[in-house]
Amino acid sequence: DISHLNQAIKHQQAQKKKLRKRPTKGKQKNRTELEEALKRYTIYDKEELEFAKYGQDGLDWVFFMKDVLQVEHIPKPNSSECKRRNKIWELFRSEVVYLVDHILILKNVFQGSLLFLISDENTFENIEPRKVFANLDEICSVSTAFCRELYKGLKETTTREIFGPTEVIVRLLENFDTKISPAYQTYCMNYDSVLLNTSRKMKNTLTSVHFLK
């Protein structure tokens, strides 16, 4: 049972393409101008992610079970079951952290600020956001849906004695290859060409290098 779960988790991790952070070359120009413009940009939370709090450090499946069931005590399982629950919790938490602390930062802070500079500040008018961030919106959408499905699957099956039935987790992971992995593959395959073309277009503008950094 646990070996089946391990195989499913390892396969999911192997398929997932991490958004890669690359250094950008260039000389910084007119930093103050860009900083002043960005001070006028406000980040709005467009949606509340009901599962986001579970990405906090120090929380575990015991906290999750108590929180979902609204109880003070959870029976302690045997050693083998503890290990299985730890693996499932780490899978769920890592997906939540990656979405909240990485993908949404890229979307709301970096992509959002570029859209603001283009539409409100008349800066980088020759840049197409889609060519800079590729299918970031798609990645955000599928990753949010995946986290929400994991959360729902865990929440609906949790009892005082049960956390994350293996068959439920394996079934949810089967969707990863068809719904999520292709989105990451598209982003990663386009990353180098997107960065190169964007850098060429922006290299002569006063604020481009600082923004890319």
UniProtKB/TrEMBL annotation:
Record region (Disordered): 1-31
Gene3D superfamilies in the record: Dbl homology (DH) domain (1.20.900.10)
InterPro entries the record matches: DBL_dom_sf, DH_dom, PKHG5/7
Domain DH intervals: 83-213
GO molecular function: guanyl-nucleotide exchange factor activity
Listed Pfam families: RhoGEF
Segments of skewed composition (Basic residues): 13-29
PROSITE patterns: DH_2
GO biological process, any: Rho protein signal transduction
Chain segments annotated as transmembrane: none
PANTHER family per record: PLECKSTRIN HOMOLOGY DOMAIN-CONTAINING FAMILY G MEMBER 7
Protein name, per record: Putative pleckstrin-likey domain-containing family G member 7-like
Species whose genome carries this gene: Stichopus japonicus (Sea cucumber)
